[in-house]
Amino acid sequence: MATDAVILRLKKVTEQHAEILYSHISNPHLYEYLEEQIPTLMEVKQKFKFATLEKSPDNETMIWLKWVAVTPQNQYVGVVEIGIFDDQYAEIGFMTFVGFQNRGYAHIYSSLAIAETQQRFNLSTLHASVNEYNLASCKVVERLGFHLHKINRNAEFVKGKPSDEFIYRLTF
User: Fold this and answer.
1) To the nearest whole number, what is the mean pLDDT of the chain?
2) In three state form, how does the secondary structure of the chain look?
3) Which of 16, 104, 146, 160 would be 1's cystine partner, CB 3.0–4.6 Å?
4) How far apart are CA 166 and CA 149, in angstroms?
């Protein structure tokens, strides 16, 4: 367990973070349970540019909040994002960088992101989509108080095989 986890801080992602974080974000291990491919540096820069504006690159009506989690020693631990759609459907996603996984960080920085979002927006629920094989992320969202809401069978195609998508929900 991380001894300095309680004093992790969130920094709003900026376009300048793209180059700083790219070596972490492009680690193939992080994409083990994701359908998406490893993004290029230019793609990360573009996404971070939109994140700075709190806008989604894919949905112009979505508010997109994105932070990087930082230790007191200024080490980058992971990223967390919350997308809020115009119908008030909101979803959280997080990625803990290799070297910081399984140490309690994801729970801490996700809690901070949820609290900050709740201060700005009056959400009644928050969702998380997790691949059925990503047991570490399932544990994190469950520890955050999310409950399994539904299972989308064969919703994802990861590493050449179909897998289920678990939809978790946190009610405020």
Assistant:
1) 93
2) CCCCHHHCEEEECCCCHHHHHHHHHCCHHHHCCCCCCCCCHHHHHHHHHHHHCCECCCCCCCEEEEEEEECCCCCEEEEEEEEECCCCCEEEEEEECCCCCCCCHHHHHHHHHHHHHHHHCCCCEEEEEEECCCHHHHHHHHHCCCEEEEEEEEEEEECCEEEEEEEEEEEC
3) 104
4) 8
Mean pLDDT for the stretch of residues 50-75 = 94
Alpha carbons 13 and 35: distance in angstroms, whole number: 23
| pLDDT of amino acid 4 | 43
Of 50, 48, 26, 46, give the one whose Cα is nearest residue 37. Answer: 26
CA distance 58 to 41: 18
As a whole number of Å, the end-to-end CA separation of the chain is: 27
Would you say the C-alpha torsion 158, 170, 112, 43 has a positive or negative sign? positive
The dihedral formed by the CA atoms of 152, 29, 38 and 91, expressed in degrees to the nearest 10: 40
Structure tokens at 75: 């080490």
Q: Which residues pair with 69 in a beta bridge?
A: 10, 78
